[in-house]
């Protein structure tokens, strides 16, 4: 019997502090930085983002999302035999956010590690978990995207600080005799490191370089639409499916114009596009599982629907996962 992996439950968590564009504009004005609700909505589609309190970490947000996913799946934390956290904002240099989160869930023994592929992190993590389940290395995995991007934003740079938010999303992925994950397609091209990065590091007890996010927005924009189209087509081809089989497109929630551009290139009606960037901003590796969970809980995504998940981000990294929910 062929062994597949299938999503058994989804969960998410947003920190309670909800910051509208107007709130952010007022805060930035006190620093002499000018922006407006109208500019942010027109260029990005973002209306609101959530920011975590200073003492809240990615593993805190991820653990809450994981608890909700376990509950939805009807799976006890003790049954989990693999934890992968996709994050670029881990709690500390080491150990991984996944190990810290494992302890918060009160379980021990199963492998736990982080995946660092920036905004593509969740599709990378899901693909790794799928492979490990298919080989029999795991039976029930928690795959989590969790970020506190507010920690790495330069609030004097209006071209980036208005775009990002904090949050977490999670799925329980379990072995099944029915597919599940149908195909995936992952890529990276390190020559584009400089267009989206946090170039600082820790050395000799000091921060070396600049530990805040830098982005060439137009370069990212141009690359993103092309690679998202290519990854979707490659994934469909691997699965022997076509665009017409996609019920819902869940791209990384970075910018409504990139998302709509991708849907149009795939000749998908905009009704099939899942949009949460308006309410969450760009939450990097958390954006896809957050959008998935919100849409499952609202009743939009139903069991049996075919979903195309697509990530793109720093690295440059990109990829897609096609699955029957
Ligand atoms: N408020 C008001 N004005 C602003 C702001 C702001 N927040 N930011 C920039 N502007 C101004 C600029 O200074 C510029 O003014 P000028 O014409 O007087 O020079 C003008 O608006 C236009 O700026 P552009 O950078 O040309 O604006 P653009 O239309 O390219 O939009 C944006 C910028 C939103 C960043 C866009 O390029 C984009 O979305 N890029 C993709 C970013 C993305 O998706 N990143 C996430 C990748 S995921 C990851 O891995 C983290």
What secondary-structure arrangement, pairings included, does this model have?
Elements: E1 4-13, E2 17-20, H1 21-29, H2 37-44, E3 48-51, H3 58-73, E4 82-86, H4 97-104, E5 112-115, H5 121-134, E6 140-148, H6 158-161, E7 166-176, E8 181-188, E9 196-197, E10 201-203, E11 206-208, E12 214-215, H7 217-239, E13 248-251, H8 256-265, H9 277-280, H10 287-297, E14 306-313, E15 317-324
Helix pairs in contact: 3-4, 7-8
Bound molecules: acetyl coenzyme *A.
Acetyl coenzyme *A binds next to helix 2, helix 6 and helix 7.
Give a brief rundown of this model.
By secondary structure, the chain is α+β, with helices and mostly antiparallel strands. It has 10 helices and 15 strands. The strands form 5 sheets. The protein has a 5-stranded mixed beta sheet, with helices on both faces.
Describe the structure.
This protein has helices spanning 21-29, 37-44, 58-73, 97-104, 121-134, 158-161, 217-239, 256-265, 277-280, 287-297, and strands at residues 4-13, 17-20, 48-51, 82-86, 112-115, 140-148, 166-176, 181-188, 196-197, 201-203, 206-208, 214-215, 248-251, 306-313, 317-324. Helices cover 33% and strands 26% of the residues. Helix 3 crosses helix 4 (97-104) and helix 7 runs parallel beside helix 8 (256-265). The model has no long low-confidence stretch (mean pLDDT 97). It is built from 10 helices and 15 strands.
What sequence of helices (H) and strands (E) makes up the elements? EEHHEHEHEHEHEEEEEEHEHHHEE
| Distance separating the two termini | 20 Å
Structural class: alpha+beta
Q: Which hetero compounds are present in the coordinates?
A: acetyl coenzyme *A
CATH class identity of the largest domain: Alpha Beta
Using only C-alpha atoms, the radius of gyration works out to 19 Å
The average pLDDT value, as a whole number, equals 97
Oligomer kind: single chain
Number of helices: 10
- Might you state the CATH topology name of the largest domain? Peroxisomal Thiolase, Chain A, domain 1
DSSP strand (E) fraction? 25-35%
* Large-scale geometry: globular
CATH homologous superfamily assignment of the largest domain: Thiolase/Chalcone synthase
- What is the CATH architecture annotation of the largest domain? 3-Layer(aba) Sandwich
